[in-house]
Every structure is written in structure tokens, then in C-alpha cells.
Design goal:
This protein is mainly α. The chain has seven helices and no strands. The protein has helices at residues 2-9, 12-19, 26-51, 67-87, 95-119, 122-125, 133-153. The longest helix is centred in the N-terminal third of the chain and has 26 residues, at 26-51. The protein is elongated, with a radius of gyration of 18 Å.
């Protein structure tokens, strides 16, 4: 692993992202990562809160339309996350990175289940939350909160 980390950190792309004064280098990559996070986690939270009864005047089934933008946020985060990892490949040995990635995977599974089991369920057309929907909403909020927190901590802990 050490040889791979050394090789990756000496690539031109890694050095450019890390050392360039260009706004497209680290500042641009971290900005895209933040925007992707805001879209993906923000819209997931909106859906979860609606399932929990916030803004109950909004049609529950219509929340499913937000998933297209959630996937846009996911792609932005995935691409920018890989670029951030290329710029700092020593994160590959940071245990918190792997915990963060596991929490993201669990969050994605939960929001996909929420769409299939709650928003696309026949009850949603009548603005009723199917059994298990509230649990998925709480899990979504908890998992995204944990993933975001652990993601921030990777900069400070876990080496």
C-alpha cells in the first residue's frame, strides 16, 4: 500500500490539485464536493423530514422526483471525492475514511429503500406513510449525519 500511496502522491494530477494556485485545483474540487454534499444530503433530509410529517401539505409521492437531483449530487461527490483522495492518498490508510465510505453506502441503501418502499408505495398517493417509513426516515437522517461528521473528522483524526 505504501508504494501505491507514494506513486499516487507523485502523479502530476495529485501535485496539481494539492499545489496549484488555480481555482480549479483544490479550491474547485472541494467546492464541487461541498455542492454535491449539499444536494445529496440536503434533498435526502428534505424527503426524510417530509416522511416524518414536516410540511405535510406537500404530496408524499411527489418527493420521488427529487431522486434525479440526489443522483446528480452523488456523482459530483463521487468524482470530487476521488480527486480529493488523489490529492491526499495517505487518506487510504485513515480508518475514518473507510468508516465514512461505509456510512455513505448505508445512507445510499437507505434512501433507495425509502424511495421504493415509501414514496413509490400505493399509500404515498394518499399521503400516508407505509409501515417502516418513519424508521427509514430516521435512519436516513442518522446515517447522513454520521457520514458527514466522520467525513469532517478525517482531516483531523484517524491516522
Amino acid at each position: 500500500m505504501a508504494a501505491f500511496i507514494d506513486w499516487l502522491s507523485n502523479t502530476g494530477l495529485s501535485a496539481w490539485i494539492r499545489e496549484s494556485n488555480s481555482l480549479w485545483a483544490y479550491p474547485g474540487v472541494i467546492t464541487f464536493h461541498s455542492v454535491g454534499l449539499a444536494i445529496m444530503v440536503g434533498l435526502s433530509a428534505v424527503i426524510a423530514l417530509r416522511v416524518l410529517g414536516v410540511a405535510s401539505g406537500l404530496p408524499l409521492a411527489a418527493m420521488s422526483r427529487l431522486y434525479g437531483m440526489i443522483w446528480v449530487g452523488f456523482v459530483l461527490n463521487a468524482v470530487s471525492g476521488v480527486l480529493l483522495l488523489i490529492s491526499e492518498p495517505t487518506l487510504l490508510v485513515n480508518k475514518l475514511l473507510w468508516i465514512k465510505l461505509a456510512l455513505i453506502a448505508a445512507s445510499i441503501i437507505t434512501i433507495v429503500r425509502m424511495n421504493r418502499r415509501v414514496l413509490l408505495a400505493p399509500e404515498a398517493k394518499a399521503n400516508r406513510v407505509p409501515d417502516g417509513g418513519r424508521g427509514l426516515a430516521y435512519a436516513t437522517l442518522l446515517l447522513w449525519s454520521a457520514a458527514t461528521t466522520v467525513g469532517r473528522l478525517t482531516a483531523y483524526l484517524g491516522q
